[in-house]
Description:
- It contains ten helices and 26 strands.
- By secondary structure, the chain is of the alpha/beta class.
- Strands 3-2-1-7-19 form a five-stranded parallel β-sheet, covered by helices on one side. Strands 9-16-10-11-12 form a five-stranded parallel β-sheet, with helices on one face. It has a five-stranded antiparallel β-sheet with strand order 22-23-26-25-24.
- Helix 1 (12-23) packs parallel to helix 7 (297-312).
- Residues 325-393 form the Reductase C-terminal domain.
- Residues 4-304 form the FAD/NAD(P)-binding domain.
Amino acid sequence: MMRQIVIAGGSNAGLSAARELRRAGFDGRVVLLDADAQSPYRRPEVSKGLLSGKLDEGRVAIEWPGNLEVERLMGHRLVRLDLGRRQVEAIRADGGDVQVPFDGLVIATGARARPVPFGPRLPGVHTLRSVEDARGLRKDLREARRVVIVGGGFIGLEVAAVAAELGQDVTVVEKDKVPLGSVLGASFGAYVTALHRSHGVRIVTGGSVAGLVPGPSGRVAGVRLVGGEPLAADVVLVAIGSLPGVDWLIDSGLDVTDGVRCDRTCAVAGADGVVAAGDVAAWWNPLYSRLMRVEHWTNAVEQGAYAARRLLGLHDPAGFVSAPYFWSDQYGARLQSIGSSLGHDAALTLESDGPKLVVAYARAGRLLSVAGIHASAAVMGHRSQVLSRISIEDLECAV
């Protein structure tokens, strides 16, 4: 019988799991541990409202519900999972050791920014994942004139838009032929590239970074490209993806190759009474019949709730079925996507009218996802078709 459940990770998936445990009637002890003393907060706003100054930290924070009766141990860095003793081990901010036993465990330790791989990290070089990261980057952006962003993914492009609107000289270095091309295809990538160039952002594609250039003071002064001239920079953001938060699980015996390996019900492989949710979970998504690890807000919230029900045996045995949804705001334009376009072999433009663009992605003739810009209603209107994986022919007839 479960009398004590530990939630490892206090961001959106952890909060959602705590809420669902109480909603489902669990009346035992719930203990939550998180290294970030500021969790939870609206993570999408880290590279949007918080960085631009349109929102302050108070408005980004999510107030923890006082009626959940959860013992929150914030500022506790997780260091080990001992499945034999069924306990989680952590280190407090003051250096003290903590061991917390569990009957059930929710792993929701999220992800961290991939570290800077270009030698020693110089002052003025940033990654972006947390509120603390945004605080430091925002300060440097206010004092900079030239900004170089390594990586043309969503985080990189959102920061490029913020820096351009602040009047900075901005360059984005993307290793592929077009930003977002591997995710949303050539036409969508070309649209987003044109949007940024229309706001004065320089996009360098097919570029590979050889290293960082230090200035006389030791602060970053530029980015050196392979076979090219250095790009002058006062501030550099390295936005080259993320890594799941599994460092504390390395010697646990769990499969953490790319996140915590789970079955379709978010149950962790090789561990009884342990589930995972959010950015750290690599689960078998029945909708796409493959392992997926999704780093989007809505997925964390929905999966956290499902994982809590799985722990209590109140889950849908069919599994956690997800058509991931995300959005990105750039220059006042909202880009949205429903589903996963990974592995698509066809991209069909459904609408292209002025600033509006809607594209459908398919594999082997079946719909995978739909993405759009200036097209909120159109994208969400295709949700049921994505969930039913209709044929691309039927989609064309329905448009």
